[in-house]
Write a structure and sequence with these properties.
alpha+beta; three-stranded mixed sheet; 15% strand
Length: 192
């Protein structure tokens, strides 16, 4: 063999070795890339499950909070309904209570003490029964400052003095409330 052939053979072997090395490197890179892809896929599946779990927890918490709000609201409405369930009956009884007040005023002008005492007893019994059911009188008196939130002005009359301007001169009809709700506003006359 001559030198050229040896060099050529060596050169061919080196080229073949280089090609084999390149193929090995490429195979190794592909293998590593596929392993990394599998790891990335596993992480993304794990991350996906974690995100799904977080979404479901959030959905559950929102649903639970909404249900608690619903329970609280319905309980409040039920309590309010119980408080005002007698409202219609109490409203129907208010004219009777007014008639008793007028009767006591007229009977007190007469000199019949027994009649007055009997009517007062019946009046107190009726009044106590209505109070036991939650009825309260709205406290409005002559001389108080007029407030449209708590009284209804029937008419205005010239005030006797500057002190009485914008104030209640007379209470024509008592007002009543059931719990915190006014069911009949007092009817008043105000000074102008």
């Amino acid at each position: 063999m001559n030198f050229k052939n040896i060099f050529k053979n060596t050169s061919n072997m080196t080229t073949e070795n280089t090609e084999i090395d390149q193929e090995l490197e490429e195979a190794t890179l592909e293998n590593n890339a596929s392993e990394e892809q599998i790891i990335v896929e596993e992480l993304s599946v794990e991350e996906q499950l974690t995100q799904d779990l977080a979404k479901e927890k959030d959905k559950y918490l929102r649903l639970f909070a909404e249900f608690e709000n619903y329970k609280r609201r319905t309980t409040k409405e039920r309590i309010e309904l119980f408080k005002t369930a007698n409202q219609e009956v109490l409203l129907a009884m208010l004219p009777v209570l007014d008639d008793f007040d007028r009767a006591i005023t007229e009977i007190s002008k007469s000199e019949d003490e027994l009649l007055l005492k009997g009517v007062e007893l019946i009046h107190e019994k009726l009044k106590n029964t209505l109070v036991a059911k939650g009825l309260e009188q709205v406290e409005v008196n002559a001389g108080d400052t007029f407030d449209a939130d708590f009284a209804e002005a029937i008419t205005q009359i010239p005030a006797a003095s500057d002190k009485m301007k914008g104030k209640i001169v007379d209470v024509l009809e008592k007002g009543y409330k059931l719990g915190d709700k006014i069911i009949r506003f007092p009817k008043v006359v105000i000074g102008q």
